[in-house]
Amino acid sequence: MGMVETTQTFYRIHGTPFGPVALLWSVHGGQPKVRRVLLSQSGISAKNIVRTFFPHSIPSSCAEIDVVTHKISAFLSGDDIQFSLDISRLDLCSTFQQEVLRAEHKIPRGRVSTYQRIARHLGNVNGARAVGGALANNPFPFIIPCHRAIRSDETLGGYQGGPRMKRTLLEMEGVSFNALGHVVIDKFFYPGRRRPRPLAAEECAVV
Q1: Phi, psi (5° rounding) for residue 113?
Q2: What's the confidence (pLDDT) of residue 41?
Q3: What are the chain's domains?
Q4: 3-class DSSP state for residue 177?
Q5: Which of 19, 49, 146, 154 has its CB 3.0 to 4.6 Å from that of 182, i.e. a possible disulfide?
Q6: Which of 113, 100, 40 lies closest to 72 in space, CA to CA?
């Protein structure tokens, strides 16, 4: 039997090797679903982010959310964890962002792609900046491993948890770096090209 539908947002704080992580969740379609994963950042913890930006959320959890938080801890400890998208509220994202996040979710452990290659995979040869923006605002870090997208020049690019965390996560997954801090990679994920399609208005935003 599913849970009772509610518009109330709950949160679960969980300690990790990178500091506290907060999961915002609610009941949707009779099931608990993650609305956002919030990372602690320099000078502000995930708990304070919840208090500041989601003051009406309530501390609570359930068996399904507990499983996700424990998987996140294992993931951040270096375990090979694959998250299902079924636990996340992807429907809260725009159509374009959903496409980007689904493409990012397919990049396996130990591999990386670039914003440009993901854009080409989606049919947008000029969409690298829009892809970067969609990933910069990824509501589900770890569940969707946006740390596996880098710049075309093989530098890291941005990350919600900061560049040090992004590099550490990639190194734990077996990705190497040279002395200049560039990713050492023989083959990118999404190597091919696809026929371009017209850009939607939301894809033209400057990141």
Answers
A1: -135, 180
A2: 85
A3: 10-85 (3.30.160), 93-196 (1.10.10.10)
A4: strand
A5: 154
A6: 40
Q: How far is CA 116 from CA 28, 75, 171, in A?
A: 34, 26, 22
Kindly list the catalytic residues: 146
List strand residue ranges (DSSP E) for the chain, in order: 10-14, 21-28, 31-39, 58-59, 113-114, 149-150, 176-177, 183-184
Summarize the chain as % helix, strand, coil (round to 5). 35, 20, 45
Q: Which residues contact 121 (CB under 8 A, 6 or more apart)?
A: 103, 190, 192, 194
Task: Provide the whole-model pTM.
Answer: 0.88
One-letter amino acid for residue 101 of the chain: L
Using DSSP bridges, classify how beta strands 176-177 and 183-184 pair: parallel, antiparallel or unpaired: antiparallel
Radius of gyration from C-alpha coordinates of the chain = 17
Going by C-beta distance under 8 Å and a sequence separation of 6 or more, which residues neighbour residue 23?
Answer: 11, 12, 14, 34, 36, 37, 38, 65, 68, 69, 72
Q: How far apart are CA 83 and CA 38, in angstroms?
A: 16
For the stretch 93-143, pLDDT in tens is 999 999 999 999 999 999 999 999 999 999 998 999 999 999 999 999 999
Which residues lie below 8 Å from residue 186, measured CB to CB, with a gap of 6+? none
Please tell me whether residue 100 adopts helix, strand or coil conformation.
helix
Strand 113-114 with 58-59, pairing: unpaired
CB 24 within 8 A of CB 57: yes
